[in-house]
């Protein structure tokens, strides 16, 4: 663990200067980085993320992709209006197309959920708290999972939604089987991608979900190999709904009912390290959403003073610090990615299409039992 931390710190120090060199080289400002320096950084990347390549030609190709990605990360760093930091990640040796194929929803185009959005007229007048973070409530949010090479963000996110709602409704911590959603998916696509609503319909068809312990995640799937009938169900849902495409309404529902699934444009996450991403429609098209994540909270933070002044000649003086509202989202790439498996997006600008498909399951407690209210922790 100590070696990993030291490698990460050393890699970050080397990359900071190298990225500027590569950007300058591509703009024609200087001869560019020395090949040895780039190779040294790339070697550290290989060690840090356990990468090896089959032959010299493949090594050379990945080295070139790595250099291009460093330049892209530096460009995003300069253009970001939030507090995000971009740089070397586990995906820095992948092209944008490869990254999209591995971590995007391959079936996302061409079909939308055939269900009406929930009408929020009964919520008018209800105030939204300034902050909300369901991670602070015991037994609500399960540990961050790693989808590995299985394209199953949709299944992991749906499972996380059900787990959190079950915890809020029944004050009982559960961890449900993602593998059941892959093996029993009604469309039979498993690790090839899917939709959040496919996962919820699978849960309804199977009359609930088994536990993660009984039916563990394998990061693979086999068509027509559903084992749902073998195991006791530990959680189930009544139905699912899509919320209105309004961030204020989404925040209100999140604070009062619990975490929500959303589907966003995954593009900027390839180079993301930490901070609040304030995307634009140009660098993160809100109409092209291809990655499902769990929305677990929201808050505000201070902007990074002088960031734009340092990268733009048109602003010679640091701008005053201001508050940046953000969403907190749980990803499915392991706890070593991003902010311990989470990331933050700007709230109020439909960043990366976060309002396009806000979908949540509904878990209802029987009327004969008195319902205990659980509030979102600030």
From TrEMBL:
Residues 128-362 form the Peptidase C1A papain C-terminal domain. It is found in: Endoplasmic reticulum. Keywords: Disulfide bond, Endoplasmic reticulum, Glycoprotein, Hydrolase, Protease, Signal, Thiol protease, Zymogen. Residues 1-19 form the signal peptide. Residues 42-99 form the Cathepsin propeptide inhibitor domain. Gene3D superfamilies: Cysteine proteinases (3.90.70.10). May have a specific function in the mechanism or regulation of T-cell cytolytic activity. Belongs to the peptidase C1 family. This is Cathepsin W. The lineage of its organism: Eukaryota, Metazoa, Chordata, Craniata, Vertebrata. The gene is CTSW.
């Amino acid at each position: 663990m100590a070696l990993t931390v030291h490698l990460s710190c050393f890699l970050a120090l080397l990359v900071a200067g190298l990225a500027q060199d590569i950007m300058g080289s591509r703009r024609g400002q200087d001869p560019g980085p020395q090949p040895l320096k780039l190779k040294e950084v790339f070697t550290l990347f290989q060690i840090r993320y356990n990468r090896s390549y089959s032959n010299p030609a493949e090594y050379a190709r990945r080295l070139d992709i790595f250099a291009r990605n460093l330049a892209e990360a530096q460009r995003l760093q300069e253009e970001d209006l939030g507090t995000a930091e971009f740089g070397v990640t586990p995906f820095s040796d992948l092209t944008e197309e490869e990254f999209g194929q591995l971590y995007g929803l391959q079936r996302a185009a061409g079909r939308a959920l055939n269900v009406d959005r929930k009408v929020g007229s009964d919520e008018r007048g209800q105030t939204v708290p300034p902050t909300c973070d369901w991670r602070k409530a015991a037994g609500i949010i399960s540990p961050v999972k790693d989808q590995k090479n299985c394209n199953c963000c949709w299944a992991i996110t749906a499972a996380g939604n059900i787990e959190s709602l079950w915890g809020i409704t029944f004050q009982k911590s559960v961890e449900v089987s993602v593998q059941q959603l892959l093996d029993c998916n009604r469309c039979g696509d498993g690790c090839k991608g899917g939709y959040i609503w496919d996962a919820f319909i699978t849960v309804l068809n199977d009359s609930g979900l088994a536990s993660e312990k009984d039916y563990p995640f394998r990061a693979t799937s086999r068509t027509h190999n559903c084992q749902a009938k073998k195991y006791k169900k530990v959680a189930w849902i009544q139905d699912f709904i899509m919320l209105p495409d309004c961030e204020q309404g989404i925040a209100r529902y999140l604070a009062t009912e619990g975490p929500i699934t959303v589907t966003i444009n995954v593009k900027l996450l390839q180079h993301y390290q930490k901070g609040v991403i304030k995307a634009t429609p140009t660098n993160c098209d809100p109409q092209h959403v291809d990655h499902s994540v769990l929305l677990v909270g929201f808050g505000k933070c201070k902007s990074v003073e002088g960031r734009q002044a340092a990268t733009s000649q048109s602003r010679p003086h640091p701008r005053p610090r201001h508050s940046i509202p953000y969403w907190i989202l749980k990803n499915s790439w392991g706890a070593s990615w991003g902010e311990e498996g989470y990331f933050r997006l700007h709230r109020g600008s439909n960043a990366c299409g976060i309002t396009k498909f806000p979908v949540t399951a509904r878990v209802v407690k029987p009327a004969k039992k008195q319902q205990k209210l659980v509030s979102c922790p600030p």
